[in-house]
Amino acid sequence: VELGGGRTRPNDVIDPSVGISELIRVGDTVSPGAILGRVHAQDDTSAEQAVLRILESVTIGFEPVENSPLIREIRRAG
Asked: Which pLDDT tens digit goes with each residue over 8-52?
């Protein structure tokens, strides 16, 4: 949304050329220098802000983690 690829209000304009792709998933194995995802932005400032947000949201550790069930899977189990 911050890049312009989503809406916060119904009349907001969506820019289909921006977004995030190839983002790593929970439990993926990564090594130093690995690509964690790709940011598609209209300018360097927006790209850097998106990169910082992604890096703030990712935790890399040494222990394997279990994937959480998807929301639709939780609904089916209930």
From this structure: 889 988 989 999 999 988 888 888 898 999 999 999 999 999 999
3-class state of residue 23 by DSSP: coil
Residues 6+ apart with CB under 8 A from 33: none
User: For the whole model, what pTM was predicted?
Assistant: 0.70
| Alpha helices (H) in the chain, listed in sequence order | 44-57, 71-77
26: tokens are 């929970």
First CA to last CA across the chain, in angstroms?
31
Please report, for residues 9, 51, 59, 73, the alpha-carbon distance to residue 38 in angstroms, rounded to integers and kept in the order given: 26, 9, 17, 28
